[in-house]
Amino acid sequence: MPTKRRITPQGKLKSVLGGINNSNKNQLKKISKLEITEEKPQVPLSKFYMRMHGKWHYKGMACRLCEMLLTSEVVIDKHRYICKAINKKQED
User: Fold this and answer.
1) pLDDT of residue 44
2) Residues 7-47 pLDDT 10s
3) How far apart, in Å, are the Cα atoms of 5 and each of 9, 18, 26, 36, 62?
4) Whole-prediction pTM value?
5) What does 2-60 look like in DSSP terms, one character per residue?
6) Position 60 in a domain
7) SS3 state at 61
């Protein structure tokens, strides 16, 4: 019978936070390649908190339209140009 691999709380936390950082880096790469031709409206944002070790920690801002986590000021300011929800609406 195969054994189950146990994921410790610390390992799960590292994987979640690693995903957050990779997402932010990918967004920064997309933003650097963009040519801004027209001004788009700012996306609605909300504060994102994560519960770790029995306490709530602030992790950044979250886009309410595409549910992406934004941690850098540059990404927060220019996310409207790469937001999937806004760009999809304008194409239709």
Assistant:
1) 92
2) 666 666 555 555 555 677 888 888 888 888 888 888 899 99
3) 13, 20, 30, 47, 32
4) 0.66
5) PPPPP--HHHHHHHHHHHHHHHHHHHHHHHHH----S--PPPPEEEEEEEETTEEEEEE
6) yes
7) strand
Residue 53 lies in a domain: yes
Does residue 67 lie in a domain region? yes
- Backbone torsion region of residue 57, taken as left when φ is above 0, otherwise alpha when ψ lies between -120 and 50, otherwise beta: beta
Residue 3 is assigned to a structural domain of this protein = no
Domain of residue 63, residue span: 10-34+43-91
Count of structural domains within the chain = 1
Terminal CA-CA length for the chain: 52
